[in-house]
Amino acid sequence: MIRKRIPAKDDRLLVRLTEKELLPYTRMTVPEADVNLSEMKKRFKLGETFVADEGAQAAGFVSVQVSDDSLFVDMLAVDSRFQGRGLGTSLMEHAERHGRKLKCRASRLYVDSVNEKAISFYLSKGYSVKSYVPQLRLHLMEKEL
Questions:
Q1: C-alpha closest to that of 116 among 106, 108, 124
Q2: 75-124 residue pLDDT tens
Q3: Cβ–Cβ contacts within 10 Å for residue 140, how many?
Q4: The whole model's pTM is what?
Q5: HEC states along the chain?
């Protein structure tokens, strides 16, 4: 089941998921990178965050922002224990439907260039690499909605 984030229930777990599943890739480029609850709450407030539950537990999330006619996927993380079950695909589909409802014409995201698994995932979902930010070793990927 995918639902909207419930801050009191989800935020600490989403920070842990970010630390476990995303931060290791970021630290390959920016070793001092860190996340904390306060900063994550600020980031979540910039858009919508959807959570995928597996049983009684949050197993993944996608956080998105809308600007003009574009959906920006800020973060997508699925607990490694639940990967390979379609949760990432379901979360992305949910996020893209959300964008379409808000009249977005494209979806964009940044992905660490060292995260080959994520790049392959996004390519399989119809995203293409639009540019590269060498200072941060990030690819900008985009898909028409």
A1: 124
A2: 999 999 999 999 999 999 999 999 999 999 999 999 999 999 999 999 99
A3: 15
A4: 0.94
A5: CEEECCHHHHHHHHHHHHHHHCHHHHHHHCCCCCCCHHHHHHHHCCCEEEEEEECCEEEEEEEEEEECCEEEEEEEEECHHHCCCCHHHHHHHHHHHHHHHCCCCEEEEEEECCCHHHHHHHHHCCCEEEEEECCCCEEEEEEEC
